[in-house]
Automatic annotation (TrEMBL):
Protein name from the UniProt record: Uncharacterized protein
Amino acid sequence: MAKGKVSTRTFVAYLTTAGPKRLSVVSKQVAYKDKPFPGDPYARLYSAMASSVRLNDPAPVWAAVTNESTRMRASYGECAEGWEQIVPAFHGAVVERRHTGVWSARRITVNVTPHLRLSYPDGRRELVWVHARAEKPDPLEIDAVLWLLEQAADDLLQNAEPVFVDVRRARLIRRRPSQVTTPWMEAEAAGFAELLDQFATSAA
């Protein structure tokens, strides 16, 4: 099979599941092979966060809460409460345009698109991933996202530090001792590729 492209969200979902749930992740990847995945319900929130960092003010995120549909308004509101505590950590940052980098192994290419690419006047740079979902992130999810951001940094923003934001719980996590290693990620990518082959063959 030709090299498959997957999103960070899909690959990390694969890493943090086991058994039949893994098959479900891969089957969805095959089902949407030639179609766009369903839109991220938090996309407007991420855009508001970028504006918030530019202004060093949580107001744009609260405006997004007000403008959101009834179905998502409560979720946006919980995120806004956490973001109000987080945004001062990015004071002075310049928000760069969103961009996608990649990490490749074993016929799998993972597209890595941080929610924020930030540069500071003192030369620091950060790649920020925002976890907006209600469920608490699995420690492996945090480690895998930080690892992928670091691997793709040359494509995204050289010498940038990866940052994971668990926004509802107002947690900002930078580099830390990790259970994720290159051999392990390559082995997981190989397993993903093998399952992708099997599903693609059965769907043909």
